[in-house]
Amino acid sequence: MSIPLQEEPPPQGKPSPRNPFDQLPTLPGRPTSEEKVPFSKKGALPKKLVNHQRDAVAGLDKCPRCGSSEAEYVIEKRALVCGSCRHENHGKSVGERFGRREKLRELEGYTASVSSAAKISSDVIVTVKCDGCGAEVAVNTAVKLSEKCHWCRQTLSLNNRVPNGAVPDGILPFTITKAEAMSHIRGFLSGRWFFALTRFKREFQVENVYPIYLPYTVVDARFEGELWGSAELHKRSYKQGKSTRYDYDVFSIYRHFSALANDVPVEASSARQVDIHQNTNNVLQAVQPFPVEHALDFRAHYLNGFHSERRDLNPATIHMQIHNQLLTILRGQGALTIGDYEKRGVRWNTELVDVEGIHMASIYLPIWLYSFVETNAKVKGRTRRQDLIHYIAVNGITGKTMGSIPVNRPKLLLFSVIIGIVVGVPASFIALILLGVYPWWLL
Amino acid sequence: MSFILVLDGFVLIPADDGGDIIGLLFALGPLVAFLFYGATYRNYRNHDKRFKLEESTEVSSKVLQASDIFMNTVTGASHGTMRGANHEDPTTRVGGAERPRPTE
Fold first, then answer.
1. pLDDT per residue over A281-303, tens digit each?
2. Shortest CA gap B50–chain A (Å)
């Protein structure tokens, strides 16, 4: 798909006497006037505020038929069902309001949502900090007065209340039921049971899978990107003695792209950042993608009976994560243009993304989560052993499953050695015969 | 391969023309054990799994400019692939790029 090129740089925002951000109360989830929008080398991008939650009153929605404020999301019906009259509300698609797909080419400047200026009402949802792992978990106290952390399964204390997170622009409600999620997890474990840690197998109860909503910022961007690097073009290979030799040409290469990226997901919770040496959060990412175009207007009732992670990173503070994601996309585009260099390879040494327009929306995405804490785990880069939380995650829409299973290392090592001996002894026997040595001592 | 260390017998054996095959036979046991351990551990822990953003994201792009400048020819190299090639690892950031500046 071609993109109309922009000859002039995007218009710079004139400094207004009163920044629109200043007119909003200070709450999590929105950029403040002190925060910069450092996406463009041409200068700060002009800011725009949009409201994707025009008529939403977070946490105090009432049934349009009977006026009751009791409702909960029923996965089988894929609707919010009123607790009094059983009226089913299927929600409004937030995608139509975003209009992102159609307007992607026209994206200019930095567009964020003002809906996030409102906090989720504490009448329905309470956010508490877990003593075990420090996660900030939103739970519905109207349903249960005690609850466990879905990350580490520590019992949560209501004494550790923290302010609720900001209202997201949209939510993608679950379509995978608990029974289906349990089936996916059993299937995932079927080939990963024998070498699993003994305590994991002893304590495993698939019923303890939790439905949670994770906060993401979904980004649409119009940007230009540049890549510089070295490339080697294979010419020929030949035998010289016993070794193979290669002739090749060296090139200095440069690529300049104009690109549109749609629905780039970025983690909006600092606790869920991925570090494969320190945590298993990568499995949460590995169950993506989500069909975010089907997201609905957020209503706090969607969280009834479900857990959610508090969004503590707002769009302005995750700019480096977004920048990284766009660079990854740029490198992916670069890889499509290397042609015959692929045989030997390309070494990119400089990469640059220059955003011309960006739109961000915060969305809650659904995951079924099973967790297990491995105590005294050996963690790479750490001299002392520490607790490591393993997750099995199921995409709440597609059912894609991924997980990290704690391994019984001594058992695996023992079986590896046995297999090595079973294969190695006959192989060594044959090798000795080929050498003319009769290995009578092996018999 | 001039010498082969047989791990389960601790014997050093000089290799001849068929040394590659014989060496492989001697190394087969430890090699299979090592690969079995690594593959099984990876299958359980899945620490290498990630969301392939660059493949899954809906992106439309256009090359505005591209240049390939010939530098030199290398002959008789021993490596079949480029050293330090990173075209298959888009998530590792490379240095030297001018980062966007936080400006007003």
1. 888 889 988 988 888 888 777 88
2. 4
Residues A392 and A403 sit within 8 Å (Cβ to Cβ)? yes
Q: Is the CB of A247 less than 8 angstroms away from the CB of B41? A: no
pLDDT level of residue A40 (50, 70, 90 thresholds): low
Contact indicator for A374, A406 with CB cutoff of 8 Å = yes
Burial string for A266-297 (b: 16+ CB within 10 Å, else e) reads bbbbebbebebeebbbbbbbbbbbbebbebbb
Per 3-state DSSP, chain A is made up of helix, strand and coil in percentages (nearest 5) of 25, 35, 40
- Which of B 43-102 lie inside 8 A of A, CB atoms? 43-51, 53-88, 90-91, 93-102
pLDDT higher than 90, residue A157:
no
Q: Is residue A141 scored above 80 in pLDDT? A: no
| Contact yes or no for B33 and A434 at CB 8 A | no
Number of CB atoms found within 10 A of residue A423's CB: 17
Q: Do the interacting molecules here have an ipTM over 0.90?
A: no
Residue B55, Cβ density class (10 Å: 0-12 exposed, 13-18 middle, ≥19 buried): exposed
For the entire predicted model, the pTM comes to 0.74
Nearest CA in chain B to A436: B22
Mean pLDDT of A363-379: 86
- DSSP state at residue A395: E
Give every CB contact of residue B100 below 8 A, 6+ residues apart in sequence: A38, A39, A40, A41, A323, A353, A354, A355
> Residue A50: is its pLDDT beyond 80?
no
